[in-house]
């Protein structure tokens, strides 16, 4: 054995203990850590892009990394990171994630490791939490992009089935052009269209309802009526990124009775609202969708990378993703045969962090996290609306606050960007830019399990502090 490998084998306990110490220190200071580290700290230091001929061993390398780069790590796992839709990691999920790397299971086949059985159990528990029926199967993928990819891929296979074509075998050319309809397709779904060979140009934007991001179903019906028999996939939003608006799923389902199409529901973070009796009505009808995306590393607060794809069409999913090899088990139609159900041949044990979190906190813990975030988002929105210098661009429907600077003279987008740069330098709260109804805006998305009222107070103070002096 190489001497450095032998050294690290002998020092394994010390390596793990030092890692624990560094992680413990990081977590202890998480609430005080800047949500946006200095730009200079985010750069690679001299020489670190070169491969050394002789290594230094794990302990020395660990110390060197922390000394050089700890300052460049964001507090994005903390309670005032409101950028994008970024969750944190609950203690149970973090503990599980450490174990995932230590035990290093390839969670493919149920007879090879218990990992596949736990993944199946996690899917069943998640369906119970979100009110999804037994008819759905599901599996873990790396994120919403791959969950949307899988859902649309199964939809592509379904479109072929309606015409007696096996797209997985014959290729997309046998099916011909596909029409994809959506009012607010997430960029990850558009990316999936490119990867699947359907093409970004297949996406046709359906009008929204007035003053809303929700799809106008009358406009959708006009598209469907004019499709002339072309295969159609409808991408519905269950929580848009700016205002967390939900498409009217019952009306979409009624249209599907007259114009058959594949209904994919992108519920990356909004779907988790189904765990609350107060907000589950927003998702009425999603149990009849053909495929669904839910992210775990957003509102379910497990570490990156983790998402779940659901579908009611397991057999079609296996047609798309089956993997034939002389040294592997042949495909069998069962919901835990993950080798034949996901894009990956090798998969880390992604299910364990969510499984442990669900065991640790239960239905009531998840519900508390969701409802508290929504309450605090509304408090943040009310505070901004009452502050000179800000105005809301839309009502706070759930857990995202979409707002803008008031009384800006000149280039509003440039003023917005300067404000966000000041906010980043202040380091207390992280928000991200957006556009809504043609106006440059700012988003604050609350999904972290640690966020409390004190964080909203600190965030409002920082936002007001960073306003241009004219305010």
UniProtKB/TrEMBL annotation:
One of its GO terms (molecular function) is transaminase activity. The modification N6-(pyridoxal phosphate)lysine is found at residue 298. Its EC number is 4.1.1.86. GO terms for biological process: amino acid metabolic process; carboxylic acid metabolic process. It is an enzyme of class 4 (lyase). Its cofactor is pyridoxal 5'-phosphate. Signal peptide: none annotated. InterPro entries: Aromatic_deC (IPR010977), PyrdxlP-dep_de-COase (IPR002129), PyrdxlP-dep_Trfase (IPR015424), PyrdxlP-dep_Trfase_major (IPR015421), PyrdxlP-dep_Trfase_small (IPR015422). Pfam families: Pyridoxal_deC. Keywords: Aminotransferase, Decarboxylase, Lyase, Pyridoxal phosphate, Transferase. Belongs to the group II decarboxylase family. PANTHER family: GROUP II PYRIDOXAL-5-PHOSPHATE DECARBOXYLASE (PTHR11999), MIP05841P (PTHR11999:SF70). This is Aspartate aminotransferase family protein. It comes from Serratia plymuthica.
């Amino acid at each position: 054995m190489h001497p450095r490998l032998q050294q690290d084998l002998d020092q394994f306990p010390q390596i793990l203990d030092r890692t624990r110490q560094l992680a413990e220190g990081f977590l202890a200071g998480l609430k005080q850590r800047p949500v946006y580290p200095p730009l200079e700290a985010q750069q690679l230091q001299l020489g670190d892009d070169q491969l050394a001929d002789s290594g230094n061993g794990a302990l020395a390398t660990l110390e060197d990394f922390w000394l050089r780069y700890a300052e460049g790590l964001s507090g994005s796992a903390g309670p005032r990171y409101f950028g994008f839709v970024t969750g944190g990691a609950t203690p149970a999920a973090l503990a599980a994630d450490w174990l995932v790397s230590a035990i290093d299971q390839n969670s493919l086949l149920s007879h090879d490791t218990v990992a596949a059985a736990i993944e199946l159990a996690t899917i069943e528990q998640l369906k119970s939490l979100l009110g999804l029926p037994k008819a759905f199967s599901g599996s873990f993928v790396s994120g919403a992009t791959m969950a949307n990819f899988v859902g649309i891929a199964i939809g592509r296979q379904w479109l072929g089935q309606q015409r007696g074509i096996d797209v997985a075998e014959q290729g997309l050319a046998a099916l011909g052009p596909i029409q994809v309809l959506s009012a607010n397709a997430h960029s990850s779904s558009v990316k999936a269209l490119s990867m699947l060979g359907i093409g970004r140009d297949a996406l046709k934007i359906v009008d929204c309802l007035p003053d809303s991001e929700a799809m106008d179903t009358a406009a959708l019906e006009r598209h469907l009526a004019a499709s002339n028999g072309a295969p159609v996939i409808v991408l519905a939003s269950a929580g848009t990124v700016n205002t967390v608006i939900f498409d009217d799923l019952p009306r979409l389902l009624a249209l599907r009775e007259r114009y058959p199409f594949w209904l994919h529901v992108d519920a990356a973070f909004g779907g988790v609202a189904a765990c609350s009796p107060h907000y589950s009505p927003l998702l009425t009808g999603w149990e009849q969708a053909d495929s669904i995306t839910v992210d775990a590393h957003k509102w379910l607060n497990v570490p990156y990378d983790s998402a779940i794809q659901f579908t009611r069409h397991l057999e079609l999913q296996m047609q798309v993703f089956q993997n034939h090899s002389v040294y592997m088990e042949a495909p069998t139609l069962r919901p835990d045969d993950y080798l034949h159900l996901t894009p990956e041949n090798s998969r880390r044990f992604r299910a364990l962090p969510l499984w442990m979190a669900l065991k640790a906190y239960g239905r009531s813990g998840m519900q508390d996290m969701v409802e508290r975030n929504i309450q605090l988002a509304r408090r943040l929105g009310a505070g901004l609306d009452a502050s000179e210098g800000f105005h809301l661009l839309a009502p706070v429907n759930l857990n995202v606050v979409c707002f803008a600077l008031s009384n800006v003279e000149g280039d509003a987008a440039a003023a917005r960007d300067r404000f966000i740069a000041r906010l980043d330098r202040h380091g207390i709260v992280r928000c991200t830019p957006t556009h809504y109804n043609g106006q440059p805006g700012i988003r604050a998305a609350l999904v972290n399990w640690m966020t409390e009222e004190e964080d909203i107070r600190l965030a409002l103070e920082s936002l007001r502090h960073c306003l241009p002096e004219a305010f």
